[in-house]
C-alpha cells in the first residue's frame, strides 16, 4: 500500500478527493452562515440557470496561457461569479459554478477521467474560497453599491485565481515535475488579467442592478470581448510558438553529444506540447539494437533496448512516415488516453519515432495544431540527432583507433606505450605510494613458437594474459610489452609484498596450459622495480625492472628485485667500482665476525667472517651492493683473499688464547672457478698455523649451478685438504634434499627466510625439522642463520640443530669487539638461552 501511494496517479487522486472534501466542508459553513434561501421564486431560479449556462460557456471556451510546464486557464468566469455574488445565495453560486464548469469541461472540452475530476474539485473549491473572501470583506446582501464591495470583489477573484494557479502547479509537480514550484511566480503574472475581467464584471453587475435588460447588451459585449481576446491570445501563442521553435533549433545546434541532445529534445517537446510523457524510439538495424528513450514528467530518463521493431503497436505506422493523432478517450485499453506520434528522419533509411502521451490538466486533449507543431520539432530534432550520431560514430572510431594504438591486438592488454602513460600518471597522482613494476619474460618461448607454430605461441600468450589478469583481479594493471614480455603495475606496501606477488604469478603461470591436444609448461623470470626507491619515472622503472628480470633469468631464481649491482651501466655503479678497487688495493675494507654457537649448550663454536665497506663519501655500503660489484669487476678474488687472510690470522690468535673456534668464509662463483684457489688457501693456512679443519668455506646453491662440473672439481680438491664445505642459503635455490648425498659437503646452512618464523609458522617448523633430520641422516652438520629471538633459539635446540647464528646471539662485530665479547662469554652453557640472557 505504501508503494501504491507513492505513485503520482494515486497522489493526484488523493489531492482531488481532499479538494472535494474541503469544498463540501466550506460549502456547509457558507450555508450555515448565510440566512438567504437557496431559491426564492422564479427570479433566482432563472438567474441560477442563466449563470450555469454562462459558467459552462466560459469554462468550455477558456483561453490557456502557458508558462513552460505550468499554465493558467483564462476565461471570463469572473463576470458570472461577481453577478452571482449579488443575485444568489452563496451556496447556489457554488453549485452553478461547479455544475456549469463540469458541463463545459465534459461537453465542450471533452475532458474525462482523472483530469475532469481534478478540475471539477478545484473549480468548486475555487468558487467557495472566492465567495468566502467576498463575504468576509464585503456585504453580499447589499449588492455592489460601494468601494468596499468593489474591493471585496477584486480580492475574492484574485484569491480564487491564485488558488487555481497553486493547485494546478501542485498537480503538475506531483504528476510530472517536482521542480514546477520554482515557476510559480511566473504563472502568477496572469493575475493582472483577472483585474480586467473583474472590472468588467463589476460594471456588468451595477448595470444589471439598474436594469435587468442590459443583460442582452452585455452578452454581446462579452462575446466580442471573448472573441477579440481569444484571437489576441492565439496570435500571441502563435508568435510564442515560433519563438520557441526558433529557440529550440538554437538549443539543438549548441550540442553534438547524443545523450545530452536527446534529453534536450525530449524536455523541449514535453514542455511545448503540454504532455506528461515523451519518448524517442530508434529502430534496430543490422549492426545494433534499437533504443526506446522515455522522459517522464518527473524528469527521469529511462532507456530500454529494442531488438525488434513493433509494427503492431499504435505508434508503429509513424515509423513508416505517417502522422498519428489519438484524441482523448478514457475507454481506450490498448494505449494511452491521448497521444501523438510523428516520424523522425535520422538520415538515410533510418527513421525514428517521436511520441507524446497524456496531455496535462490545463488542455483538453491533443489537437491537429499540436500535431503540426510536433512534426516541425521532430524534423529539426532529426537533423540535429543525425549529425550528433555521425559525430558519435566518428568519436567512437577515434576512440577505437586510440585503443588499438594503446593496446595489444592479440591479448587486448595495454601495450608498452600505454604502460608508460599509466605508470607516469600513477606516479604523479600518488608520489609517496610504493608502486611496483613486475616485468616478466617467458623462458624458452622461442622454442615453442618455432617448434609448434605461431598459432600455438599466440594461444599460450593469450592464456598468460588471462591468468595474470585473473590473478590480480582488478588490483593492478596487466600489460603486454611485446613478444613474450608482460608487465604488471600495482601498488604494494613493501618490497616483500611485491616479491610475494611475483612468486604467486610465477606459480600461476607454471600451471599446465592445454592448447588443442598439446600440454605446455611455461616458466617465467620476473624482475621487480619499486617506486620511488628505484626510480620516479616510467622509463627508469621499466628499464630497471628489465635489468632485474635478466638477472633473475641468468641466476634462474624466478623472481628478483632490482639491485644496483645488477645494473652494469650506471655512472654511480662505475664510480663505486673505482672506489671499491682503491679500497681493496689499500686494504680499507673491514672484516667483521658473527658468532656461531651450539644451541643445546650455548658453546661458542666459531664465527663467520663477513666483509664490510665504509665509503668515505657515501657511508656504509651494503654487502648486497658492493659484493656483486666486486664479482662483476674482477675484484672478488682479492676481496675474498683479504677476508680469508684476516679470518685465519684472527682464528689463530683465538685458538692460541684457548678458544677452539673455526671460521667460515663465503666463496663466490668466480672464486670457486679459480684453479689456484686450493694452493692459495693451503699457503694461508700454513702461514697462520691454522688446521684445515678450522676453516669452513660457504658456497650457495646458485654458485654450484653456475658451473656444476668445474665447481665440484674444486670442492673435491678443497675437501681433500681437510677444509669443511658448507651449502649456504639452503632452501632458496635448485637443490633438493636428496641431492645432498651427491655433493662433497660437510654442512648445510638453512636460509634465514625459513628460520625467522620457525617458532610460529608450522610450515617453516616442518621444513627446518626435515632438513635437520635428513642432514643428520647423511652425516652432515646443520647450521641455522637469522636467529633473532628466544623462541626460535629454543625451537632449533629442541629439534637438534647443531649450530645457530643471528642477532639473538650477537650482531657481526669488528675483530676487537668480537675478541672482547669472546673473553666475557663463558665457554660452556648448561641451559638453553643463557647466552641470550648474558647478551641482554
From TrEMBL:
Gene3D superfamilies: 3.30.450.40, 3.30.70.270, EAL domain. The chain crosses the membrane at residues 12-33, 45-67, 87-108, 120-138, 150-174, 186-207, 213-232. Residues 573-826 form the EAL domain. Keywords: Membrane, Transmembrane, Transmembrane helix. GO terms for molecular function: cyclic-guanylate-specific phosphodiesterase activity. It holds the Pfam family EAL. The keyword Membrane applies. Residues 433-567 form the GGDEF domain. This is Diguanylate cyclase (GGDEF)-like protein.
Amino acid at each position: 500500500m505504501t508503494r501504491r501511494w507513492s505513485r503520482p496517479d494515486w497522489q493526484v487522486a488523493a489531492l482531488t478527493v481532499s479538494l472535494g472534501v474541503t469544498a463540501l466542508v466550506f460549502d456547509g459553513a457558507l450555508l450555515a452562515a448565510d440566512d438567504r434561501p437557496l431559491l426564492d421564486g422564479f427570479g433566482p431560479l432563472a438567474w441560477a440557470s442563466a449563470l450555469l449556462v454562462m459558467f459552462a460557456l466560459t469554462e468550455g471556451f477558456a483561453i490557456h496561457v502557458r508558462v513552460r510546464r505550468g499554465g493558467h486557464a483564462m476565461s471570463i468566469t469572473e463576470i458570472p461569479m461577481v453577478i452571482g455574488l449579488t443575485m444568489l445565495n452563496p451556496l447556489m453560486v457554488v453549485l452553478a459554478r461547479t455544475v456549469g464548469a463540469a458541463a463545459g469541461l465534459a461537453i465542450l472540452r471533452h475532458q474525462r477521467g482523472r483530469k475532469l475530476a481534478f478540475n471539477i474539485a478545484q473549480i468548486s473549491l475555487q468558487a467557495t474560497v472566492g465567495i468566502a473572501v467576498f463575504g468576509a470583506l464585503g456585504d453580499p446582501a447589499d449588492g455592489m453599491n460601494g468601494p468596499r464591495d468593489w474591493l471585496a470583489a477584486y480580492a475574492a477573484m484574485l484569491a480564487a485565481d491564485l488558488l487555481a494557479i497553486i493547485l494546478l502547479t501542485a498537480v503538475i509537480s506531483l504528476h510530472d515535475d517536482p521542480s514546477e514550484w520554482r515557476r510559480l511566480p511566473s504563472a502568477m503574472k496572469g493575475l493582472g488579467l483577472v483585474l480586467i475581467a473583474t472590472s468588467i464584471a463589476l460594471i456588468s453587475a451595477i448595470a444589471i442592478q439598474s436594469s435587468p435588460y442590459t443583460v442582452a447588451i452585455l452578452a454581446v459585449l462579452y462575446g466580442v470581448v471573448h472573441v477579440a481576446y481569444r484571437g489576441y491570445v492565439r496570435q500571441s501563442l502563435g508568435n510564442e510558438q515560433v519563438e520557441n521553435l526558433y529557440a529550440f533549433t538554437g538549443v539543438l545546434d549548441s550540442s553534438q553529444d547524443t545523450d545530452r541532445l536527446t534529453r534536450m529534445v525530449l524536455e523541449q517537446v514535453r514542455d511545448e506540447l503540454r504532455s506528461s510523457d515523451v519518448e524517442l524510439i530508434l529502430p534496430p538495424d543490422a549492426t545494433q539494437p534499437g533504443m526506446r528513450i522515455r522522459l517522464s514528467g518527473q524528469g527521469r530518463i529511462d532507456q530500454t533496448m529494442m531488438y525488434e521493431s513493433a509494427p503492431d503497436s499504435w505508434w508503429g505506422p509513424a515509423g513508416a512516415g505517417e502522422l498519428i493523432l489519438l484524441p482523448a478517450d478514457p475507454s481506450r485499453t490498448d494505449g494511452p488516453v491521448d497521444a501523438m506520434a510523428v516520424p523522425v528522419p535520422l538520415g538515410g533509411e533510418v527513421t525514428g519515432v517521436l511520441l507524446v502521451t497524456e496531455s496535462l490538466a490545463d488542455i483538453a486533449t491533443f489537437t491537429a495544431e499540436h500535431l503540426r507543431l510536433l512534426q516541425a520539432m521532430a524534423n529539426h530534432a532529426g537533423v540535429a540527432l543525425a549529425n550528433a550520431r555521425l559525430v558519435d560514430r566518428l568519436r567512437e572510431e577515434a576512440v577505437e583507433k586510440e585503443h588499438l594504438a594503446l593496446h595489444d591486438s592479440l591479448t587486448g592488454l595495454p601495450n608498452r606505450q600505454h604502460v608508460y602513460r599509466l605508470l607516469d600518471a600513477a606516479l604523479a597522482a600518488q608520489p609517496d605510494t610504493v608502486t611496483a613494476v613486475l616485468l616478466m619474460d617467458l623462458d624458452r618461448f622461442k622454442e615453442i613458437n618455432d617448434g609448434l607454430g605461431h598459432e600455438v605461441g599466440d594461444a599460450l600468450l593469450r592464456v598468460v594474459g588471462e591468468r595474470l589478469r585473473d590473478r590480480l583481479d582488478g588490483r593492478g594493471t596487466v600489460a603486454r610489452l611485446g613478444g613474450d614480455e608482460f608487465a604488471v603495475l600495482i601498488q604494494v606496501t613493501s618490497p616483500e609484498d611485491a616479491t610475494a606477488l611475483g612468486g604467486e604469478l610465477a606459480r600461476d603461470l607454471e600451471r599446465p596450459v592445454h592448447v588443442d591436444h598439446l600440454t605446455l609448461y611455461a616458466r617465467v623470470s620476473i624482475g621487480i622495480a619499486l617506486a620511488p626507491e628505484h626510480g620516479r619515472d616510467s622509463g627508469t622503472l621499466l628499464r630497471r625492472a628489465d635489468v632485474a628480470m635478466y638477472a633473475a633469468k641468468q641466476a634462474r631464481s624466478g623472481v628478483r628485485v632490482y639491485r644496483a649491482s645488477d645494473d652494469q651501466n650506471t655512472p654511480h655503479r662505475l664510480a663505486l667500482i673505482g672506489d671499491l678497487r682503491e679500497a681493496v688495493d689499500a686494504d680499507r675494507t673491514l672484516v667483521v665476525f658473527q658468532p656461531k654457537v651450539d644451541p643445546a649448550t650455548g658453546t661458542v663454536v666459531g664465527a663467520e667472517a663477513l666483509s664490510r665497506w665504509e665509503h668515505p663519501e657515501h657511508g656504509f655500503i651494503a654487502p648486497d651492493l658492493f659484493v656483486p660489484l666486486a664479482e662483476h669487476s674482477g675484484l672478488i678474488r682479492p676481496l675474498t683473499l683479504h677476508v680469508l687472510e684476516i679470518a685465519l690470522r684472527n682464528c689463530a690468535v683465538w685458538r692460541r688464547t684457548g678458544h677452539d673456534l673455526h671460521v667460515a668464509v663465503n666463496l663466490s662463483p668466480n672464486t670457486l672457478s679459480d684453479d689456484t684457489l686450493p694452493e692459495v688457501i693451503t699457503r694461508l693456512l700454513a702461514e697462520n698455523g691454522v688446521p684445515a679443519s678450522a676453516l669452513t668455506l660457504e658456497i650457495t646453491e646458485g654458485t654450484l649451478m653456475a658451473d656444476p662440473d668445474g665447481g665440484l672439481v674444486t670442492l673435491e680438491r678443497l675437501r681433500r685438504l681437510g677444509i669443511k664445505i658448507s651449502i649456504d642459503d639452503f632452501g632458496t635455490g635448485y637443490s633438493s634434499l636428496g641431492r645432498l648425498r651427491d655433493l662433497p659437503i660437510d654442512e648445510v646452512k638453512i636460509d634465514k627466510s625459513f628460520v625467522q618464523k620457525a617458532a610460529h609458522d608450522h610450515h617453516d617448523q616442518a621444513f627446518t625439522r626435515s632438513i635437520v633430520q635428513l642432514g643428520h641422516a647423511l652425516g652432515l652438520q646443520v647450521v641455522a642463520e637469522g636467529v633473532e629471538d628466544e623462541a626460535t633459539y629454543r625451537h632449533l635446540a629442541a629439534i637438534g640443530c647443531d649450530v645457530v647464528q643471528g642477532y639473538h646471539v650477537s650482531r657481526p662485530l669488528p675483530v676487537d669487539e668480537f675478541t672482547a665479547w669472546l673473553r666475557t662469554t663463558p665457554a660452556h652453557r648448561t641451559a638453553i638461552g643463557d647466552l641470550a640472557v648474558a647478551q641482554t
